[in-house]
Amino acid sequence: MADETEIQAGAPAEAVPGAEGQGERRGRGGRGRGGNDRGGRGRDGRGRRDDRRGGEEQGEELIEKLVHINRVSKTVKGGKRFGFAALVVVGDGKGRAGFGHGKAREVPEAISKATAAAKKAMVRVPLREGRTLHHDGNGHFGAGRVTVRTAPPGTGIIAGGPMRAIFESLGVADVVTKSVGTSNPYNMIRATFEALKDQTSPKSVSQRRGKKIADLLGRGGASAPVAEAEAAAITE
Predict the structure, then answer these.
(1) Contact criterion met (CB below 8 Å) for 170 and 125
(2) How is domain 137-233 classified at the architecture level of CATH?
């Protein structure tokens, strides 16, 4: 019923029976409240902008993974009202990922709400050679504590449950992870993103410190030619 009301409110005045007569009786205030002219154009304008944004999101290929779905209930006067809560992870496979959760009476609507929230909360994580992390990291949220470590080529994604969904959506091919303290998917995902937010690349560190990337890599024990080669290979 809510959708039908909105459609009728946004319809032009000619499409609503009796709207013209009501506008003449109410005068300028009636047209302003009814939204016959200006209000209809404003609502139509917003609809067109939303359509353009939707087209842009559809054009961008995103990896969507449903991590967890839970049935929730609310006790009301007549009994219990059941609904569903969904947790979704979204990523572009190129270093951007986000998570979101949504609640609704039906499962598809809950998933769509969670997906929309995840797209708004996407963050960028610098990747080494486009396949792994630049350095190790730790993250914790509530009782969840996670450790993420960089890995050589061929290692694969050594992670379970919600953490695997994050790295697959992020585009990471080689990583080693460990989660302790809790198996709650919400806390595990938040702790993982806390660890990923601390990731920095040699390029950003060199810009912040005003040094060359080769100098920073050379301090780690690498020889000058090797450090220069690795610095040239770093793009992010």
Answers:
(1) yes
(2) 2-Layer Sandwich (3.30)
Find how far residue 227's CA is from the centre of its chain. Answer: 35
Which residue's structure tokens are 């024990």? Answer: 221
Q: Would you say 93 and 171 are in contact if contact means Cβ atoms under 8 Å apart? A: yes
- Each domain of the chain, given as residue ranges in start order, spans 2-47, 63-124, 137-233
Q: How far apart are the first and last CA of the chain?
A: 51
137-233 has the same fold as 63-124: no
The class (CATH top level) of 63-124 is alpha beta
Cα–Cα distance, 127 to 123 (Å, whole number): 13
Residue 181 contacts residue 144 (beta carbons within 8 Å): yes
Entry pTM: 0.65
Mind listing the pLDDT tens digit for each residue in 64-81?
Answer: 999 999 999 989 998 999
What span, in angstroms and rounded, lies between the C-alpha atoms of 87 and 166? 12
Coil vs helix vs strand at 2: helix
pLDDT tens-digit readout, 36-61:
444 444 444 444 444 444 444 445 68
